[in-house]
Amino acid sequence: MADGMAKEETAQQLQEQPLNTPPQVTTTTIPPDASAQLSDAAKASTSAYRRSALAYLSLTKPRLTALIVLSAATSYALFPTPPLLTSPDAPSLSTLTLLYLTFGTTLCSAAANTLNMVAEPKYDAQMSRTKNRPLVRKLLTGRQAVVFAVLCAGAGTVALWFGVNPTVAGLGAANIILYAGIYTPLKRVSVVNTWVGALVGAIPPLMGWAAAATSTTPSLPTTPTTHWYDESLHLLSLPGGWLLAALLFAWQFPHFNALSMTIAHEYKAAGYQMMSWKYPALNGRVALRYSILCFPICVGLWWAGVTDRGFLVTSSVVNAWLVREAWRFWRLKGQRGASRRLFWASVWHLPGVLGLACLHKKGLWEGVGRWLWGEEEEEEEDGYVY
C-alpha cells in the first residue's frame, strides 16, 4: 500500500510541475539497437565463425542501414512509370537495377556506419545506448573494422557504378565521406551536426531517383563536350527525388530530437554537442517546425505528379499525428512521456508516409481499372512521356 501511495504522490507531483521549469533528467528508456543485440549474441556464441560474423554485422548498424535502403528503394519505386497492365512496350523499372541499387547502398551504409564506430569507441563506452557496440567490447580490433569498411565502401561503390550509374555511385561515396568524415567529428564541435546528419539521410532518396531515371529514360546523348555532371543534372532534373529527399531530411529532426532528449545527460557527459542539453527549448521548436514541414512536402509530391490526389488526405492524417506529438513535445519540454511518444510516432510515421505514397503513386491503378472495365488503352502519338 505504501508503494501505491508513493506512486500516486509522484504522479501528482509530475502533473503539478510548472511547464516553465528547467528540463530535468528523464528516465525514459529506449530499446537496445540492433548493434547491441548482435554484440550480445556474438559475445555469447561458442563458435568462432559465428562470433566473427555477428560482430562484423553489428558494425553495420542493421536497422539504420535497413532504413537507408528502404528510403532509396521507395524513391526508386515512386519514379513515374506507366500504369499497371499497360502496353508491354512501355518503359518500366528494372529489377536488376533495383538489386544493384539495394546491394550497393547496403554496402555504402555499412562502410559509413563502421567508420563512425571506429572513430568513437572511447565515447561510445560512456553512453548506455552505445556501450555494447563491438569495438567497445573488444569483439573486433580497430584495424579489422577499418579493413571491413574499406572493402564495403569499395564493393558498394563499384556495384553502384557498373550496376546503376556513376551519378548514384558518386552520391553513395559522398555519403560515406559526409557521415564518417564530417558528421562524426562535428558531433563534438557544434549542434549543427544534427543538420549535417539529416543531409546524410536525405541523399539515399536521390540515389533511388537517379537509379530509376536510368531504367526508364533514354541515355543522355554523348557528344565531345558532354561531361559527367551533364548526366548527373539530367538524372536529377525532376523534382520528385528532391521532394523525397526533403521528406527524409525533415523527418529526422522530430525523430532524433526526441531520441536525444531521453539521454541528454549522457550526451552532455560524453561531450557531444546536442540541442537536447545545450538548447532544450530550441530542440523542441526544431522538432515541431520540421514536423509541420512534412505537410507542404507531401503536397509537393502530388503537385509534381509523383502521387495522386488521395495522398493529400491519407498523408495528412499521418502528418497530423506527428505534429500533434511534436507540439506536445515542445510544450512539455520533452517531459511527462512526451519524448517517448514523439519518438515512437516518428518511428511509425516514415514507413507510413512512404507506404501511402507507394499506394497512391500517380497512375498506378489506372491500367488495372481499364483492364477490369474492359476499356481500351488510348494511344498517344509521341508515346509515353514521363
UniProtKB/TrEMBL annotation:
GO molecular function, one term: protoheme IX farnesyltransferase activity
Transmembrane segments: 53-78, 98-119, 140-162, 168-186, 193-212, 286-305
Similarity annotation: Belongs to the ubiA prenyltransferase family.
Summary of the function given for this chain in its UniProt record: Converts protoheme IX and farnesyl diphosphate to heme O.
Keyword ATP-binding part of the UniProt annotation: no
InterPro entries linked to this entry: Protohaem_IX_farnesylTrfase (IPR006369), Protohaem_IX_farnesylTrfase_mt (IPR016315), UbiA_prenyltransferase (IPR000537), UbiA_prenylTrfase_CS (IPR030470), UbiA_sf (IPR044878)
Enzyme class name: transferase
Subcellular location: Mitochondrion membrane
Region Disordered: start-end pairs: 1-37
Compositional bias segments (type: Basic and acidic residues): 1-10
Bilayer topology term: Multi-pass membrane protein
EC number: 2.5.1.-
Protein name, per record: Protoheme IX farnesyltransferase, mitochondrial
UniProt entry keywords in alphabetical sequence: Heme biosynthesis, Membrane, Mitochondrion, Transferase, Transit peptide, Transmembrane, Transmembrane helix
Coiled-coil spans in chain: none
Ranges annotated as biased composition (Low complexity): 18-32
GO-annotated cellular components: mitochondrial membrane
GO biological process: heme A biosynthetic process
